[in-house]
Amino acid sequence: MKVKLINNQAFTLLESLVVIFIFTTAIVIVSQVYFSLVKTAVLAQNYQLAFDNLRFGTEKIWTEVKSGSDFSVNNDNITFKDRKCNPISIYKQSDNIFFRIRNTEVPLFDENLVRIINFQILSDRPLSSGAYYEISRKILVFKYEAELKTRTLTIPIIFHQTVAPSNSVLVNKPCR
Amino acid sequence: MSINRQGISLPEGIVALGLISISIVFVSNLAMSYINILTSVRERFLALNLAQEGIELSIALRNKKIENSSSPSPDWSGITTSGTYCLFFNESNRSIMVTPSNSPCPVPNYPNYRRLVRYEDFLNPNNINLTRSIAIKVISEVYFGRNDKINLNVILTKWHPNL
Q: Which of A148, A145, A83, A157 is CA-nearest to residue A117?
């Protein structure tokens, strides 16, 4: 009869310790990579949300001003008439920019995503009297200093928008 | 019955570690590329704003001609010769500054961006004298990043009675 020898030896303490150490190290590295990836993805998503919010708000200003008329500009606020001759005001209040149409006030940006630090409006100097194309403003510059908010950090952004209103060369005021 | 008691050989171990390292590097790069894309979106947003500003300045420059001329003016677009120019809004005197330039000019407050505005006759690109044009093509070019560029264009027409 042939006897088959089977090695029934268990792992030594040293072998077990080495295996546990390698396994723990691997788990720590992989989990760190995973958590940093998740953190980056969340940061990127928040950043994108905040950036989109900023972009949509500023596009709203650009569109309304482009088709607006009868502008009155102060340092951080502007009033004008929109294409349907509704009175519009755009102004900075606390950390946001507000858009007021017919006494209804709407914040342009989500306060959880965008913080407006500075808002300034500049324009050219038209003639003081004459036809509408002589007294209307031909160029308006909106200067923004903002912060994009994510859960973990805030990202500063400074930029400006320039608008040449379409109605600025009409002979008569579009809204009388 | 025999049992394979061989351990993992050195080449096998190296290959396994190599694969794990590559996968970790790949995943890390994936995270970084996500951030890089968003940074690029921000850069392009700013570049697009500046290109749009070039277009708006050219429109405003023509509209300023309408404001200041009670009779038809030969330089109706504010530019008499086709070519490349730098256009800026001067915040101190609140006017539009025009400078002929062959190379893109730095944009104030935007260190990594340069802009050039190109004027040419829309109907006859060989015509240099723009006072004879009835339509002028304005191309606003913004250079940024390593070799990135954004172009926007508009056609200015001589439609107003004062032009």
A: A145
Q: How many domains does chain B have?
A: 1
Residues of B with CB under 8 A from a CB of A: 1, 3, 5, 20, 24, 27-28, 30-32, 34-35, 38, 41-42, 45-46, 49, 52-53, 56-57, 59-60, 63-64, 66-67, 89, 91, 94-96, 109, 160, 162
DSSP secondary structure letter of residue B122? S
Phi, psi for A144 (deg, rounded to 5): -115, 135
Predicted confidence (pLDDT) per residue in A110-153, tens digit: 999 999 999 999 999 999 888 999 999 999 999 999 999 988 88
Residue B126 lies in a domain: yes
What percentage of chain A has pLDDT greater than the value 90?
63
Spell out the residues 6+ positions from residue B56 whose beta carbon is closer than 8 angstroms to its own: A139, A162, A163, A164
Q: What is the pLDDT of residue A1?
A: 56
For Cα atoms A79, B78, B116, give the angle at the middle one, nearest 5 degrees: 90
What CA–CA distances, in Å, run from A152 to A34, A41, A47, B15, B133?
17, 12, 10, 38, 56
Distance of CA A54 to the CA centre of its chain: 3
Q: Which residues contact B121 (CB under 8 A, 6 or more apart)?
A: B82, B127, B130, B132, B133, B135, B136, B137
Alpha helices in chain A (DSSP H): 13-66, 132-135
Distance of CA A88 to the CA centre of its chain: 22
B43 CB neighbours in chain A (<8 A) are none
- The whole-angstrom separation of Cα B17 and Cα B25 is 12
Q: What is the dihedral of CA B13, B19, B24, B27, to 10 degrees?
A: -170
Supply the DSSP string of A41-57, one letter for each residue: HHHHHHHHHHHHHHHHH
Give the helix ranges, DSSP H, for chain B: 10-68
CB-based contact B94 A134, cutoff 8 Å = no
- Structure tokens that stand for A159 in this block: 């930029």
Please check whether residue B117 lies inside any domain of the structure. Answer: yes
The residue segments making up the domain with residue B57 are: 10-157
